[in-house]
Amino acid sequence: MKTLIQNAHIIQPASSFHNQRKDILIENGVITEITDKIELEADEVISGNDLHASTGWFDLRADYAEPGFEHRETFESGSAASKAGGFTGVVLMPNTHPTVDSKSQVEFINKMGSFLPIEVFAAGSVSVGTKGKDLAELYDMYQAGAVAFTDGFNPIQDADLVKRALHYSQSFDGVVMLYPHNESIAHSGMMNESPMSTKLGLKSAPALAESLTVSRDLFIAEYCNAPVHISCISAAKSVELIRDAKAKGIKVTCDVAVANLAFTDSVLDTFDSTFKVLPHLREEEDRQALIQGINDGTIDAIVTNHRPWNIEEKECEFDHAEFGMACSETAFSLLRNATIDSIELETLVKVLSENPRNIVGQTVDTIEIGNKSNITVFDPYEIGKTETKKSLSYKVPGVGEQLKGTVKAAIC
Length: 412
Hints:
30% helix; 7-stranded mixed sheet; alpha/beta; TIM Barrel; globular; 17 strands
């Protein structure tokens, strides 16, 4: 199998071809030639007006819903959506049925992943059943191949459980990923507390519910002298807290969801449940703080936070709709459309590819002759429309819209 990428602008500082336009030849999964012009017959030719190539993008947070919720998504449909969005690697959340809280469940995810067109990695749950009470079998799951530990979409309310997880995971360099959300302050709010929530008359939750938990987790990480990864920050105060913690020497990394960079709570004025997400969409001030956090290195990665739902779970009264957005396949277009003037392309590529891989200890494949072909090919300036979706989710934001930034291929 020969794949030829023609006249691609290579974006990878670690590559000797960084910022150069080259043809790239891939044969049976290995890069065999990188030069100005390659003339031969290939099984697949990838060409375009302004192609760019980077190391394959990596998503730290996605839900394929299988096993247990195959009506929402499957390994096959979820991986197809991720691949269409340019992702060659994905970490799956453990919120399945049964929960990924044991060695056997991690092995099941890894086995299923071996049949997919991209790399799929299991995240084991921190607590048994992601219920936030008893510590799960972290070391056994690590031995079975879990790349991180998280309760996924269930925020851990018990501070002592966080402390025990951080202490214990240090002994084998386990990565603990925490989603910050204080349920006692959020009070089941439907959206962010803001002038928009007052206008719409919806039950709201203050950003304090997130920032207070971020502060708690940073204190615990400092106390344990342990690394921690904080998932899906969305508030300006959270960015400030993590920036200060990094300056202080606390071992913290963090990520932000596509939705919180692409949208604000103003899109809820039509009560479109597509945008009912956790963390809640915030105000423009928060969005700008997130952008600044990416630009100055406070925020290490961007995640899709892909969570698909079927029509019954989303096409209903706003109060009854489920939280979550499926956006793996349109993530890059949504990001470019919202940040083209505020985030440099090289920075955007870094937080989509190399940084997230580093966080969970995965090899970053350099675009060099003789290396594996883990490459995302895209056009950051082309205006295109995603006509059909790969995900089983009822709605995928951006589908059918003319957006800047298109993905051409994800080669894994």
